[in-house]
Amino acid sequence: MNNTVKSGFRIGAWDVYPQQNLLKSPEHTKTLEPKVMDVLVFLSERQGQVVSRQQILDALWREAVVGDEIGRASCRERV
Question: Out of 14-23, 40-49, 57-66, which region has the weakest mean confidence (pLDDT)?
Fold first, then answer.
């Protein structure tokens, strides 16, 4: 994780705080599961790039056997 992303970044109206696993907007605060935050950070570090599911799996789930964890995590954590 690069230092800029590590200290926090913004997506639309949301401030993202990776070290605390938090998303904050003017009206809401949401705590994310650590792995969901890892996916969000991974994608934010590659803004403007096409990232494959396999790249995410290779980077974040290296040795684990993963089914549809990415899809479930993104659906469950929608804000």
Answer: 57-66
| Residue 73 to residue 70: CA distance in whole angstroms | 5
DSSP state of 20: G
Q: What is the CA radius of gyration of the chain?
A: 13
**Number of helical H runs and strand E runs in the chain:** 4, 4
The pTM score is 0.74
> Strands, DSSP E only, in 1-79?
9-11, 14-17, 22-24, 29-31
Q: Which residues of 21-52 are buried (b: 16+ CB within 10 A; e: fewer)?
A: bbbbeeeeeeebeeebbbbbbbebeeeeeeee
User: pLDDT tens digit string along 24-36?
Assistant: 999 999 999 999 9
In sign, the C-alpha dihedral spanning 16, 2, 6, 64 is positive
